Amino acid sequence: MKAIHGGKAKNDRIDSYKIASLVRGGTYN
Q: CA–CA separation, 29 vs 9, rounded Å?
């Protein structure tokens, strides 16, 4: 979640995709 807090402004859509994946699959790198 560090990346999400770190560059949300830059990768807002990418973060949303990652969050969706985490919530949906519960996968943490």
A: 21
Over residues 1-29, the pLDDT tens digits come to 555 555 555 667 777 777 787 777 765 55
Tokens of 18: 């990652």
Report CA-CA distances (Å) from 9 to 1, 18, 23, 24, 25. 14, 14, 20, 23, 24
CA distance 15 to 5: 9
Q: Which helix (H) or strand (E) holds 20?
A: helix 12-25
